[in-house]
Amino acid sequence: MKYFKTQMKQLMKDNMELQTQLKVLMKEHHLEKNFALKALYHSEVADGGKYQKAYQALDVPRD
Q1: pLDDT value at position 59?
Q2: How far apart, in whole angstroms, are the C-alpha atoms of residue 62 and residue 39?
Q3: Are 7 and 55 spatial neighbours (Cβ–Cβ below 8 Å)?
């Protein structure tokens, strides 16, 4: 599975819990939004993470 910024942003838009986690990451670790998004991807989405299926569902080709 590969990280796509647009898919991650869409997943964030649909999930308040992830939005909260993003804000906490940015504040606690003094990260810019793009770096925090990538960190959140690796911790919560990639490799069987809690939001992996939701992220993969965004990858379905649209006709």
Answers
A1: 82
A2: 27
A3: yes
| DSSP code per residue over 1-63 | ----HHHHHHHHHT-HHHHHHHHHHHHHHT--HHHHHHHHIIIIITTT-TTHHHHHHTTSPP-
Dist CA 23 CA 18 (whole Å): 9
Angle (CA) 49-53-59 rounded to 5° is 120
pLDDT in tens, 4-33: 999 999 999 989 999 999 999 999 999 999
- Compute the C-alpha angle 22/16/39, nearest 5°: 25
